[in-house]
Amino acid sequence: QVQLVESGGGLVQPGGSLRLSCSVSGFPFSDFAMNWFRQAPGKEREWVALVSEVGGRSRYRDSVKGRFTGSRDDAKNTAYLQMDSLKPEDTATYYCTIRDHTRSYWGQGTQVIVSS
Q1: What's the DSSP call for residue 62?
Q2: Residues 61, 106, 10, CA angle at the centre, nearest 5°?
Q3: What pLDDT shows up at residue 57?
Q4: Backbone CA torsion sign across 46, 93, 78, 10
Q5: What stretches of the chain show up as alpha helix (H) in DSSP?
Q6: Which DSSP helix (H) or strand (E) runs through 59?
Q7: N or C: which end of the chain has fewer CB within 10 A?
Q8: pLDDT, the chain, mean
Q9: pLDDT grade for 70, boundaries at 50, 70 and 90
Q10: Dist CA 52 CA 112 (whole Å)
Q11: Looking at residues 11-20, what average pLDDT do you find?
């Protein structure tokens, strides 16, 4: 059974930092890219970042470039999203997702609130 479990969300002031983790089990983690999405209240889910399975190269949506850093530890089957210089507009539930050749698997999400 494939499971993705996010953690690390919380309440942070503007300008602060959080590191999200996504622990994956039951899946050949090292063979596939990891993506992060987020969904703000009342808005559609949007893609945030990708960490590739080859060399851990990352790509980001424009609004988080230079502030968010994705990484992965294949030995631990865990992906990370380091979020710095957080802004109120980063407030959302963050999801990790991984896809094999047939389907996507999603975590339950972790809530991030950026507020003073």
Answers
A1: G
A2: 70
A3: 86
A4: positive
A5: none
A6: strand 58-60
A7: N
A8: 95
A9: very high
A10: 24
A11: 98
The mean per-residue pLDDT over the stretch 68-82 comes to 95
Closest listed residue to residue 23, CA positions, set 105, 112, 116, 113: 105
Say if residues 50 and 108 touch (Cβ distance below 8 Å): no
pLDDT, residue 113, reads 98
pLDDT value at 56 more than 90: no
Three-state DSSP state, 103: coil
∠ at Cα 28 (50, 20), nearest 5°? 40
Residue 7 pLDDT class (50, 70, 90 cuts): very high
For residue 4, how far is the Cα from the chain centroid? Answer: 11
Two tokens, residue 94: 């963050």
Cα 47 vs. chain centroid, distance in angstroms? 9
Residue with tokens 């479990």: 5
What is each CA distance from 5 to 20, 64, 81, 88, in whole angstroms? 10, 22, 13, 24
Q: How far is CA 93 from CA 7, 17, 45, 86, 113, in A?
A: 11, 15, 9, 14, 8
